Predict the 3D structure of the following.
Amino acid sequence: MKIKTIMKSIRIGAGLGFYGDNWEPVAASIERGGVQFVASDHLAELTLAILQKDRQRDPSLGYARDVVPLLMKLWPLMQERGVRFVCNAGGLNPRGAAQAVLAAFKTRGWQARVAVVSGDDVLPRLLDGATPASAFAHLFTGAPLAEVRERLVFGNAYLGAQPIVAALDAGADIVITGRVADAALFLGPLVHGLGWTLGGANQARDLDRLAQGLTVGHLLECSGQGSGGNFGSQGAWQAIPDLAHIGYPIAEVWEDGSALITKAPGTGGRVNFDTVRQQLLYEVHNPHAYVSPDVVLDMGGIRLQDEGGDCVRLTGARGTAPTDTLKVVAGFRDGYKAEVTWGFSWPDAWDKAQAAQATIRTLLKDKRIPHDELYVEYPGLNSAHGALAPCPKPDALNQANEIWTRLVLRTPDKAAADCFGRLFPWMGLSGPAYTCGFTGLHNTSELLGIWPTLIPRAEVEAGVQTQMLGAGA
């Protein structure tokens, strides 16, 4: 008689999909979804710019501060069920994030083993003036780094799953990283729990499994977007039920890499072929070569089988060896912006908006206010689609109940940005008639530009560390 072998499986749930996302669906996955791990992605590409501004104000910051209240809510649920948590909320200061979590836990008498993954900070390497001019060119334009080197304020490489695996192998309850590849947050627990080989001479045998795990991470990394949220299918999004109580996606993954995408019972949203395939293609330039630090994913053979009941089976991902470079996201000071929004009412709303805009351009010229650009858009008309949404003819626009105009000044001079709002108030009585008011008259902010590039992975991985804090570590 042939004995059927039962494969081991791991259940992992999506945490947050961005800094400030909703924590309640995560609690539902822990309480009702049977998850053993939660992986939480706090870092969109521009989030590091936000964290850099925090760090400029207070050097002890630089991490996603939502991680503290999030874990204060989730830890009692996690501890009771033995659920472990991985996140990249460390941002530019993962040790600071871990210390803040442990300090908050101490006020409740809680103990946890918190691992910190560091080594993604490559700013010193980027600032090295001895670096050849051809190194660290802009990934899309090819421009040399020398154009912005003196204005750089952060530079972080996207790490892979290996340090997360090391932290979990060492017994961490909570793993806090800086900048790692989004899907690596999920791949790390799968490699740890399912015994896959990551790196080294034996990795080749598991490349397809790693590709499956990477696909799982990609499907879960955007929280509710993987379970019917932000669903853009025309005529179908209305059928997504109960978004007020949406459940974040959960994956059950087996040793062979096959996976079932689902969500906690009794939650809103929808997991079906359409919602899963939308997330599968999200932010993918080349589906046959989706590059990550751990494996290069070929999506061409992926099969999504809708099994009903908010369950979709995932098979068929294929993987090849990772590249010898890692992606870097760097940020540089890129001037300042000031913006004002002004509304005009019927009659002649459009003509009033045009006259006011022309007046502002005249004042900028008369006062010789230095600026790179005055960007103008009309919320409700073209701010969502830009040039792809041409405005109706002026005759029709003049019959509109109201026209809102957003004017954004981009300038290298902070004083110029600070004075922009002062060009407007006098027109309240001396300009075109209006009834809708101004917003943003004192709204100046520093701009941080983003510089994507590549770095040899050996230069980064030699400095990656996993350190355990808390619970007697």
